[in-house]
């Protein structure tokens, strides 16, 4: 289906721009001729209307004719042209979803939540990952827009600081929703976690455990979600009378266990040894735990470790990791319900954008 949509996109009025995008996404522009209902009708010596009705299981067509049409359609490898159908019906019944990556539990769970709601409402979901690249995100959005999807749900890449591609979607009348990684300045529907409150609660918990030198390991602070958790961390320190120490703050370029291991080892050997670490995400907390074991640090006696996200693995490692639970599946469901509401709203000019903020729950385990 993607190849068919991409091909139609390629031969459009923006040929040269689209050719560059297709090359970047490794989609070939040399396609075999698609089989149409005209080809099936000619083979059976019936009208195209008969074939169309048979494929739609219309009661106007006899069972024998339907079976004959389906048999020939399979033999000829016929696939319906969803783009052409969407032009006729003005609805493709397809949602586009763009996430930074699909190999993190939060994103895969969110996608599952989106799909569960979409499927019940008769919609299919096309999933793309930006690989944390702003340029790729922009190109994917352009392809989805030109593929005539009914709506697009986006979680920004770590590089995204320009939102012209989102404004362009709005100007073209394409419903778009932001989830988890959002931009507050754009008037648009959003679904987010209360990251500030979640970070504040988990740092309060560390302070209640007697910790006073609490480090923060996070991602790029240009991302709203990273900044919100950092500000929650800092707010907790200030409110509890603990001086903020910039030397205990580490901003990573990538959300990887490997970088977290290196960052914590450097911090520990620098003479700025913390007695607790709050990590932006569980994947980073796993890196700190691995590094502490290599260094012979006792957890939680010498070092308390807390993450964010409640990835499944955090309850199975030893010691198990304290974290904030994000209902990622439910976030996906909320996002899908909101965008479908916008898609099916008749008076587009009067649609009221909503922001849903989901509160995370503290899960205390052995690491603190």
UniProtKB/TrEMBL annotation:
Keyword Transcription regulation recorded: yes
Alphabetic keyword roster: DNA-binding, Transcription, Transcription regulation
GO function terms (MF aspect): DNA-binding transcription factor activity; transcription cis-regulatory region binding
Pfam families referenced in this protein's UniProt entry, alphabetically: LacI (PF00356), Peripla_BP_3 (PF13377)
Domain HTH cro/C1-type: 32-83
CDD domains: HTH_LacI, PBP1_LacI_sugar_binding-like
Transmembrane segments: none
Every HTH lacI-type domain range: 35-89
Annotated PROSITE patterns: HTH_CROC1, HTH_LACI_2
Name of protein: LacI family transcriptional regulator
Annotated organism of origin: Cecembia rubra
Lineage: Bacteria, Pseudomonadati, Bacteroidota, Cytophagia, Cytophagales
């Amino acid at each position: 289906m993607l190849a068919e949509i991409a091909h139609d996109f390629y031969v459009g009025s923006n040929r040269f721009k689209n050719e560059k995008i297709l090359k970047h996404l490794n989609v070939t522009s040399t396609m075999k001729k698609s089989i149409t209902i005209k080809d099936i009708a000619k083979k059976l010596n019936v009208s195209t209307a008969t074939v169309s009705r048979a494929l739609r299981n219309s009661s106007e067509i006899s069972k024998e004719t339907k079976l004959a049409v389906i048999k020939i359609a399979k033999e000829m490898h016929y696939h319906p042209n969803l783009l052409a159908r969407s032009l006729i019906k003005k609805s493709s019944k397809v949602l586009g979803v763009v996430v930074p990556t699909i190999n993190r539990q939060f994103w895969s769970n969110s996608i599952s939540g989106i799909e569960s709601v979409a499927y019940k409402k008769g919609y299919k979901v096309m999933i793309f990952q930006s690989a944390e690249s702003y340029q790729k995100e922009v190109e994917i959005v352009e392809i989805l827009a030109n593929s005539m999807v009914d709506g697009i749900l986006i979680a920004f890449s770590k590089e995204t600081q320009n939102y012209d591609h989102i404004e362009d979607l709005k100007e073209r009348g394409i419903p778009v929703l932001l989830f988890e990684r959002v931009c507050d300045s754009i008037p648009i529907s959003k679904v987010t976690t209360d990251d500030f409150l979640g970070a504040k609660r988990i740092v309060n918990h560390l302070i209640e455990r007697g910790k006073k030198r609490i480090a923060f390991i996070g991602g790029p602070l240009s991302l709203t979600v990273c900044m919100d958790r950092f500000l929650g961390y800092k707010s907790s320190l200030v409110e509890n009378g603990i001086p903020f120490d910039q030397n205990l703050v580490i901003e990573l370029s990538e959300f990887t266990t490997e970088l977290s291991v290196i960052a914590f080892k450097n911090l520990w050997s620098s003479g700025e040894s913390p007695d607790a670490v709050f990590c932006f995400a569980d994947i980073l907390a796993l890196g700190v735990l691995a590094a502490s074991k290599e260094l012979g640090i006792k957890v939680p006696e010498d070092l308390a470790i807390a993450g964010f996200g409640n990835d499944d693995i955090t309850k199975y490692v030893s010691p198990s990791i304290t974290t904030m639970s994000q209902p990622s599946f439910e976030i996906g469901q909320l996002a899908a319900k909101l965008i479908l509401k916008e898609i099916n709203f008749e008076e587009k000019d009067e649609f009221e954008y909503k922001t849903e903020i989901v509160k995370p729950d503290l899960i205390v385990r052995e690491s603190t």
